[in-house]
Every structure is written in C-alpha cells, then in structure tokens.
Amino acid sequence: MELLTPSGGLLFWMTIAFGVVFFILAKFAFPVILDSVEKREKFIDTQLDAARAAEVRIAGLEAEGEKIIADAEREKVNILKDAAASRDKIVGDARETAQEEAARIIAEAKKQAQEEKDAILASARGEVAMIAVQMATKVLRGQLSDKEAQEALQEILGDEAVTERG
Question: For residue 29, what are the CA distances in angstroms to 18, 33, 40?
C-alpha cells in the first residue's frame, strides 16, 4: 500500500522537483510559448483583417465589374441604335436618289417621246402636203389638158401663176 500513499520525504522531493521544473519552464519556456501564442494571435487577427479587406475589395470589384458590364450594354445598345439610324438614313437617301433618278429618266423619256411625236407629225404633215401637191398636180394636169380650162384658170389666178407644162 505504500504505492498508494506516498511518504512525506517523497512528497517533499517531488514538490521541490516540480518547483524547479516549474521555475525553469516559467523562466525560459513559458515566455517563449506565450510570445509564440501572441504572435500567432496577432498573425491570425492580421489575416482576418486582410480577409475582411479583401472581401470588401472583391465586393467593390464585383460592383465595378457589374457597372462596367452595364455601361458596355448601354454602349452596345447606343451603337446598335446609331447603326440602325445610319442604315435607315442611307436607305432613305438611296431611295430618294433612286426616285429622283427615276423621275429624271421618266421626264427625259417623256421629252424624247414628245420630240419623236413632233418629228413624226412634222414628217407626216410634210408627206401629206407632198401627196396633196402631187394629187393636185395630177388633177390640175388632167383638167388643164385642154386649152379652154387653161385659159379659164389663167383668168382666175392671173398671169403669174399658170405656165404650160407638157
């Protein structure tokens, strides 16, 4: 039973050994351990602060990225609107130019048709006049074949208009 109940001398020497070990640990080991724990605590606090700052910065960057994307979308919409407006203007200008050109061509064709019509009418009038003269000549030759008709015509027209033809 001696193992379960220690003697007084053993307790004395164990207390002294514990005190020496505790003194050595308190003098040399505990300051180093406490310093390491404090450094580790400061490091963890610093890293937590850096993580929070990084989180805030990431949130700011995400907001900035969303703003940039929104600006890009607005710019894209504006560019598409400008392109559509330019396309419509170009198409309108082309349509207007085509209509003007068509009107000019139609006017020119009408003018040319009128000139051709006038030329055809003038030619027809000239031919009709020639045919009328030829017919009149033939009729007059037929009627003026005898001497009495020639003298009657000469009296009506006067001396200058009638000459005898053979």
Answer: 15, 6, 16
